[in-house]
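Fig. S4 source data, part A: sequence.
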Amino acid sequence: MLRIMLLGLLAIFAGAAAAQDSTEPPPPKASPVISVMADSLPRAGGILVFGGTRGVGLEIVKALVAKNEHVTVMARASSDTSALKAMNTTFINIVEGDALDAEKVKEAFTAAPFRAVISTLGGRGGDYKVDVEGNKNVIDATKNAGLDRFILVSALGAGDSNAVQPWYVTFAEKWFMKGYFAAKTAAEDHLKASGLDYTIVRPGLLAKLSPQPSEPSLTETTPVVLTAITRADLGKLVAATVEDKAAFKKTFAAVDAKRVGLWAAVTYK
């Protein structure tokens, strides 16, 4: 036993001496692990926008790009995408698809890594199918893709906001816009039941763009007077909610303190 121990010690000493006498470079060592603060890294994933070729949706895209966000817009083959292309930026990607086609909506989520989805989908001329079915397809696809953040642009008069609208607005909704607000309400309800980190933004009338001062804001209190807001101001408000955790699971009215009451109707476009 003593002999074995002596041989083992001799082997260790011989190995150490050989290492000192060797002219070979030492074997490479693993690189040290460097700790990186999460805030110093670029934000992962872009924003997927539905209804981003015109109106409020286009203004949201402009506001996001101004914040150096990578934006993907799904648009139908028949949609006019010239305004998006005219922006001439690498921050915008356009994918073809119809929100009423659930499979195409799913495909849109494979176009790039995303961290949030925004929908301004809405029908025209009394056809509100896209308000309901289109938004449902997008909401369901967002959840199936494993994303959590969803922002829906709805309208004042949808859901519980209908009960506190001015009488003349309620009258118009009852006799002329009942289907419109029913569709907006259905989309809101589906989103709230989805479990996603949603934000619902309800604008009133959409005002003409003018040089007059504006005071746009989001409020959880539904206004009791007629209100209007420009599309550009609304787009900036919506874009600002993407990272705002204080806006999660909440519904807001989008208002402009400079455009209320009769002036709201005058500036309507």
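Fig. S4 source data, part B ends here. Residues 1-23, 27-43 have pLDDT under 50 and may be disordered.
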